[in-house]
Amino acid sequence: MQPRNPFPLFPSESLRLISYCPICNTHYNPLTAQILEERDDAHLIHIECRKCGSSIVGLVLTGGLGVSSVSLVTDLTGAEVLRFRRSEGIDSDDVLAAHEALFQTETDFLADLNRLS
Question: Which terminus in the chain has less CB density within 10 A, N or C?
Fold first, then answer.
């Protein structure tokens, strides 16, 4: 008899791929992983390190060829990841506007930031 999988949405191997903090090497408690989105065999997850406070966002894919994942270190919360995930992308005009704003005086820059918010 196989042991019960405590993570029914993932094969246990999936969470083992993302099992420790890349910043401080502390092992994550897999029960704290937030599943932000899931589609077919793909899961977007967010895990925050209890020791250093850094987070990772990971995409775990399961399929006929096994389990794979890709993740990145972030300071975003799970809610912020979803907000940016659902927002529209930026275009070249946005990049140019940011560049111009960075070269304005501090007062003008802060006024532009407040206007964009």
Answer: N
Q: Which range of residues forms the domain containing residue 74?
A: 1-86
Q: Provide the number of structural domains found in the chain.
A: 2
Task: Report CA 103 to chain centroid distance, whole Å.
Answer: 30
* In the predicted structure, residue 106 carries a pLDDT above the cut 70: no
Q: What is the pTM of this model?
A: 0.62
- Whether residue 54 sits in one domain with residue 73: yes
Question: DSSP of the chain, one letter per residue?
Answer: -PPPPS-TTS-HHHHHHT-B-TTT-PBP-GGG-EEEEEETTEEEEEEE-TTT--EEEEEEEEETTEEEEEEEEES--HHHHHHHHHSPPP-HHHHHHHHHHHTS-HHHHHHHHHHH-
Q: How far is residue 7's CA from residue 19's CA, in Å, rounded to a whole number?
A: 13
Residue pair 84/44 in contact by the 8 Å Cβ criterion: no
Residue 116 pLDDT exceeds 90: no
